[in-house]
Amino acid sequence: MLRITETSEDEKTVTLKLDGKMVGASASDLEELCLHHRDKRGKTVVLDFSGVAFIDNYGLKVLKKIKDSRVSIVNYSLFIETLLDVNKLISSNR
């Protein structure tokens, strides 16, 4: 299960704090929410991965699908960094 909490929002950016496991339906929920903010509301989306313990293959596919210049991933663990393949998915500096 993945808990998604909107922790901050202004006219240009929304930050979503993620806690738990990004698997199956929860990954789909995250995709839907990100696309809503990014495409329908025109915002930059910051995904705070500080509380993410695990991502399955479906979750990785969802991240690869939604990740672009307006979706960034921050506060990820070394384990998550390895899963996401820093060169392909994460654009921010650590």
Overall structural domain count: 1
Q: Helix fraction?
A: 40-55%
User: Quick one: CATH class?
Assistant: Alpha Beta
Question: Any idea of the CATH topology?
Answer: Transcription Regulator spoIIAA
Structure write-up:
This protein is of the alpha/beta class and 94 residues long. The protein has a single domain (2-89), classed as STAS domain (Transcription Regulator spoIIAA, 2-Layer Sandwich), CATH 3.30.750.24. It has helices at residues 24-40, 57-66, 78-84, 86-89, and strands spanning 2-9, 13-22, 44-55, 71-74. A 4-stranded mixed sheet has the order 1-2-3-4. The termini are far apart. 24% of the residues are buried. The model has no long low-confidence stretch (mean pLDDT 88).
Summarize this structure briefly.
This protein is an alpha/beta fold and 94 residues long. Helix content is 40%, strand content 36%. It has one domain (2-89): Transcription Regulator spoIIAA.
Task: List the defining traits of the structure above.
single chain; 94 residues; alpha/beta; Transcription Regulator spoIIAA; four-stranded mixed beta sheet; 4 helices; globular
